[in-house]
């Protein structure tokens, strides 16, 4: 009887040790920043994958004029992100993730801008209002809380290496863009031979950052904040698109002089009545100079740019 008890106790002790080891391994894995980001942004992920713009984009419902303006929004976003990454390339909380040759997109986006707008493209465009808040947030983080910069870099670049490749094919097919890559250089990572292996390397580097749990939690919070910024912009754009569409149906296309007079912009009529936007410049100013029906197209284009970022996360 005593032998049976000893054997039973030995088995129980062994099972406890094995169980403890598994639990410790799970805890260590869940403490990895990549896992924390995956789990911590799951809800935002779910919201993103169900947006109408994402569904439409996958179906190829996109106009060339809108894609041009989406590229504009991406250009300003990545210019800000890569400026702050350059600023913090030696910061211990970011240095291991500094891969300018492999990841940086500004140069590629410059080529796309030249393709769509011509050599004098810089004179034709400005940062869309829809992208401005996110740009400002990136600059703030880079200059004041660089340990959180990883949230934005990971969100953007890992998505580009994943869902971005799907977007490239959709855009080339829907817009009849050259198969040689003109207009879609943004999606081409010439210095990344194997996207899957590179993403694994990037996550490993990220998980090896010397960060305490509080900082990791702040990074996850920042990633969710990036999603929230996008969703707020998306909702605003959706509302603006509906307003302009309603104006078009009821009264014909709304009048706008393209000179930045906010009082003639129908989207902001409600806010103007409140006096909230007195003295502001029109966010559609650049689009008016480029496109035939700029106000509506500018809104939709910014929505496409947002959808691209959300769709990239969907495929990560």
From TrEMBL:
Residue ranges crossing the lipid bilayer per the database entry: 298-315
Substrates-to-products reaction catalysed: heme b + 3 reduced [NADPH--hemoprotein reductase] + 3 O2 = biliverdin IXalpha + CO + Fe(2+) + 3 oxidized [NADPH--hemoprotein reductase] + 3 H2O + H(+)
Positions of region (Disordered): 1-29
InterPro entries, A to Z: Haem_Oase, Haem_Oase-like, Haem_Oase-like_multi-hlx, Haem_oxygenase_CS
Pfam families for the chain: Heme_oxygenase
Enzyme class, UniProt record, top EC level: oxidoreductase
Biased composition (Acidic residues): 1-12
Binding site for heme b: 38, 45, 154, 203
PANTHER family from the UniProt entry: HEME OXYGENASE (PTHR10720), HEME OXYGENASE 2 (PTHR10720:SF2)
Family affiliation: Belongs to the heme oxygenase family.
Protein name: Heme oxygenase
